Amino acid sequence: MKQPEDIAQQAATLDQHLALVARMTQEFTTSLDIEDTLNNAITQMMEYMHAEAASIFLLENDDTELVCRTCAGPIQLTGLRLAADHGIIGNTVKQNAVQMVLDVSTDPDFTAQVDEQTGFTTRSILCAPLTVKDKKLGAIELINKKSEDGLFVGDDQHILTALAASAALAIHNAAMASALIEQERIQHELELAREIQSNLLPVAQADDYPVHGYNLPMREVSGDFYDYFTLPDGRIVFNLADVSGKGMNASLLMAKTSSLFHCLGKTQTSPGQLMSMINNEVHENSTRGMFVTMVGGIFDPADGTIILANAGHQPPMLQYAEGHFEEIIGQSPPLGIVPDVEFPETTLNLKDGTLYIYTDGVTESQQDGKMLGEEGFQAMITAHRDKPVTARITAMFESLQREGRELHDDVTVLVIENKPQAPSLSLKVPAKANHLKQLRDKAREVVLAAGSGKEQADSIILAISEAASNIIQHAYKDNEGDIELNIHIDSHISPHQLVITLRDYAETIDINEIRSRALDDVRPGGLGVHFMKQLMDNLVYTVPEDGRGNRLEMRITINE
């Protein structure tokens, strides 16, 4: 039977153990420097548990090695690397269980390599695993108990297990915090890289400029790029390219290749020779087998002539004025694979056609598991070909990004056409009656510029005003909202038609419930659908592609 003094002694010892665990747990949870905390902790463990030496080993290199991160005692082991599946420490980690070896000379797992190198003598070892939710981190090791028999006991095992649990949680949390800081740093650098990349792209031009482009990166940085600039003689140098690979390496090669093209293209106006020069530079400095596919050329707006060279890129598509397409095939390899390559040139006469150069991110986009492909892209182009070029590109990219379509790569398109731009209007105004005058005035300018006579223009403006009033009163019901008005000429129909669309973002209406008002029911803002139909050649209500609001399209043939 235990004596009262023995019980008191045990209670005092337990209180000391708990105080140590509490103190070290607090230090772990409040420390801003985990390395300093571990250094202090291992020293306290060694002294409290009367060990000659102590160390903490953590798993590294995909858990194949145990590396000493900190130690205390007569020998310095920090940085020592051991195989993760060998020795007493390795067994502790592998079995996720405490190992207490009272005499290492009788333990076959003990490795005397460190003793032989340092002159230290290991007699006994107590080793506890560092684990968080079955995630193995490493182990804490105590060597040689300072006692009469030099042996560790059960109490030592219990307190080291408690201390190991606290240390493991601190190490895990520190690693998570460090990873978060690193992710934030990388994210900041990627955002900066994206900003730099955006600045490398040319400034968007007005509709009457012959060349336009658009880039949609799938990550923070893109491997696609395009460029165009005007020479002093009025010709326009252009390119579109796709760098192999993803991430930062691809973006750096993109920046270099783009800069080479922009610099050399100002003096070397032969696309084939320009490609050869860039190819040699990229080949000389490219790494990891990276390469660049590119279409580059020069366009002369004076006669509609395009001279281009293709370095391993998918064929551009030329859409003729009649609507059919032709692929412009190129046979040369990508830039950077082999040096001293000749790049043949192809000459086109654009006339009234449009050249589309694009990356494979366009045609490889998927919807319901089916790739868009060249035919799908051609259909998309044709569906929007009556729009001005900037509105056309916007509409195509909205189609590519609409719900249900999956993009797996950067998407970039370059469009070249030499058409005189017909008058057009794209206007957004608040759905309020006091903004209708602005809408009517802007619309009248475009309608008259499109060739309509004054009488026809009055009828068109009347229909637009009535449609806008209906949106305010019946769609928004005088609530807040916007009205979008777009006007352009459909030049593919003879005689030409004026296409007018009004779009709102109110609750979608049931098209089948739209009815013409009786002819004798005339009041301000109430001419109704009947009169709009009388004023226009065609009137169609639809739901926009994004499923929001309502869209009214009205068409009228322009009086010659």
Task: Describe the protein in words.
The chain has 560 residues and is α+β, with helices and mostly antiparallel strands. It has three domains: 175 residues, 2-Layer Sandwich (Beta-Lactamase); 216 residues, Phosphatase 2c, domain 1, CATH 3.60.40; 133 residues, Heat Shock Protein 90. 37% of the residues lie in helices and 26% in strands. It has 13 helices and 24 strands. The strands form five sheets. It has a six-stranded antiparallel β-sheet with strand order 3-2-1-6-5-4, sandwiched between helices. The protein has a five-stranded antiparallel β-sheet with strand order 7-19-15-12-13. Strands 8-9-10-11-14 form a five-stranded antiparallel β-sheet. A hairpin with a 5-residue loop joins β12 and β13. α12 packs antiparallel against α13. The chain is elongated. It starts with a helix and ends with a strand. About 2% of the residues have low confidence.
